Amino acid sequence: MSGKTIFITGASAGFGAATARMFATEGNRLILTARRIDPLLRLQDELGTLADIHIIPLDVRDRQAVQGAVEGLPERFRAIDVLLNNAGLALGLEPAHQVDLDDWETMVDTNIKGLMYCTRFMLPGMVSRNSGHIINISSTAGAWPYAGGNVYGGTKAFVSQFSRNLRCDLLGTRVRVTCIQPGMAETEFSQVRFKGDTELAAGVYRGTAPLTATDIAETVRWVISQPSHVNINTIELMSIDQCWGPFAINRQTN
Ligand code: NDP
Ligand code: 8X3
What we know:
With 254 residues, the chain is of the alpha/beta class.
């Protein structure tokens, strides 16, 4: 894949950073965004000789900032070919009646509203050029419930259904939409979820071969590299060490 302009949200870590590394070849132009500027600067240092890189400190929850970032792009970055809507997080694993409501709001604001803002501000350009690809990172948590998944899973269900609905709105254009639904992958995800508790975070992956950020970047690469008439709608992938559980049953009734 070459010569594409790729806008990545959440490029400072995990899937976003791995995808940036993968695409920093063959003349691609990368717009790398996240809240933390230092990891973006390090990526720019690392990849700057391979690709034309524009970094933007951006909190996707800030609608005006997203609009400003898109409208303020330097001329050579304006025709965005690929938007990787990747920024997102889970916070906590408590049951719904004990959860911190601020955590729920943060997940909704980031995973749903942030993704909405980026899509809405970048889509008109793609439609007017009759070309582009939106790749939304959902999760197995959006399709399969688990205890403590409450609002995180709800936000990812939104991402999956929003992706399908986008396809309906874009029928007749050459703008593609793909939803990727990974299972457990070892990144900073669990450190964020457990608010810096590295023991708890490590426990999520203990004894397994989890998906890696590179696995997701490879998936993104494959999706993008299909012929332009092929739209990959949805991909669900998991570690070989993960699958579905049986129904949970309460046995305390009698
Ligand atoms: P990481 O925690 O490693 O990376 C998350 C990225 O999102 C960081 O770059 C972070 O950057 C960015 N981010 C978080 N909040 C915001 C915000 N408000 N504005 C802008 N950027 C933000 O996790 P992953 O790479 O694993 O996660 C990437 C996506 O994949 C998420 O949407 C996650 O829900 C999803 N996912 C993860 C799975 C996993 O098991 N790891 C499985 C399935 C889906 P910064 O903090 O600098 O803002
Ligand atoms: C991340 C995967 O299973 O931790 O979206 O929810 S899971």
